[in-house]
Amino acid sequence: MLNTNIKSVLELLQTFSTEQSCIDYLEEQRWGGIIESPFDSLSRVYKCSENKYRCKNTGKYFNAKTGTMFENSKIGLRKWFLAIWLVTSHKKGISSIQLSKDVGVTQKTAWFMLQRIRSCFGIENNNELEGIVECDETFIGGKNKNRHKDKKVANSQGRSYKDKVPVMGMLQRGGKMNAFVVTDTKRNSIQPLVCRYVNPETTTLISDEWLGYTGLNKYYDHRIIDHSKKEYVSLQDGSIHTNNIEGSWNILKKSVSGMYNHVSKKHLQKYVDEFVYRFNLKKVSDQEKFRYLLSNSNVRTKYKELC
């Protein structure tokens, strides 16, 4: 049995010193010792040679990589495991250029590996929230002062999407967060997300005065902070504020601008998922982050879908 008490990159490389050790570990994380066909979960499975299995009901062959981010990849699992460890353990993420150097692949391959890994981060972006939940939106893109003259936003609140992409988030105080790229910050874009993920029976919902939140008091104990009046903490109740989620946006923006320089709108949700995964698991060990992602690696992304 493999020693899975891994605390560093060196221990990771020592633990997974062969391709077979990686395959054995991936099988354990996916199936827990009971092999299940990805084509028919009720089918009997026959073990074949070279780590392959056959589904009796469909007659199809499969292995531990089938239906995962690793399927049809020419990159060995040792490099994949190293990439996953580096991505999940770095607090601010890692660029494709740096990953290509660390893993020993081309920058193009590293970018594809990163996108496949990010496609699995969504497992942490569908939490049911309750208690005190802060809601807010932010905009990812260029700063107003750096825009061309014809693109500058006159409104001090800057709710314009000329060269920015809006992201809406919900944060359970002392708990987890969900965040999603939206087309705009109108009611029809914001409120369905709130109603989907925030439990109305046990929640105090806090937001700013933005019109997109108007009407939520029908379903929630909705408290409002009026930023237009320079109010950031309620004078009546010091617990009513959105400081926590606003602080999380700063982390997201620094990650996008500092680590990745530019993120296209098409791929932004994957980067948001990565941020949420890292935010929600910030108190979890690197080993557990690694194991958790491997056990939920059954998301396959094809290159043509990315380009």
Commentary on this structure:
- By secondary structure, this protein is an alpha/beta fold.
- The protein has helices at 9-15, 19-31, 77-89, 96-103, 107-118, 187-197, 243-259, 268-280, 286-295, 303-306, and strands spanning 45-47, 53-55, 61-62, 129-141, 164-172, 177-181, 198-208, 221-225.
- A 5-stranded mixed sheet has the order 6-5-4-7-8, with helices on both faces.
- A hairpin with a 5-residue loop joins strand 2 (53-55) and strand 3 (61-62).
- Helix 3 (77-89) packs across helix 9, helix 4 (96-103) packs across helix 5 and helix 7 (243-259) packs across helix 8 (268-280).
- The longest helix has 17 residues, at 243-259.
- The protein is elongated, with a radius of gyration of 22 Å.
- The two termini are 40 Å apart.
Query: Low-confidence segments, ≥5 residues, pLDDT <50?
Result: none
Mind telling me the C-alpha Rg? 22 Å
The average pLDDT score comes to 87
- State the strand order across the main sheet: 6-5-4-7-8
Terminal CA distance reads 40 Å
Strand content: 15-25%
SSE arrangement, N to C? HHEEEHHHEEEHEEHHHH
Helix content: 25-40%
Structure annotation, total helices: 10
Structural class: alpha/beta
Overall geometric form: elongated
How many DSSP E strands? 8
Largest sheet: 5 strands, mixed
